[in-house]
Amino acid sequence: MGNKIYTIGREFGSGGRKVGELLAERLGIKLYDKELLQLAAKESGFCEEIFENHDEKPTSSFLYSLVMDTYSMNGYSSAPFLDMPLNHKVFLAQFDSIKKIAAQESCVIVGRCADYALADNPDCLNVFIQAPLESRIKRVSRRANLTENKAKDMCIKQDKQRASYYNYYTSKKWGDSNSYHLTLDSAKLGEAGCVDMILKFREIMDANK
Fold this sequence. Notes:
The protein is an alpha/beta fold.
């Protein structure tokens, strides 16, 4: 059996990050969210600020397949890689780091197309956390001390940004149940309930191998 990897996609304000934290705590493994940016920056040689500025941001450049073809043949030091737009370099460095982490340890990875990076990993469980918009608005309003109108705008903007990023770099659709093994409603289950469901799903998944 390989390392147990859990990837978590999430709607903004759904508590997906918190679910990841609780899951990692229950299992005694690491959580990678912003930590992934630090690791990718260290390994690629780019400064961390570049990763933060491009983190899960949508892009409009040439085809991802072309990027992957040139990268897979040559790596970071090649002329094609050096000539790429910066957002592609950032994505590929994160892609690389995700694969290295999964090969080294069991962990929880939040966002950043980790499910796509680990598509060929049979021990990776891909989860999407969602909740009704009204529930997310109230959560963001409380957390960020915003009016509900501003919280709504933030939810819609962040969801659109994450969807654009995910849909561009992967062959799947952000938030579509077909893109994940498990989709959970945190408003119905609560964060701890989501963790219980994920662990139960893992138990059944492993039993059916």
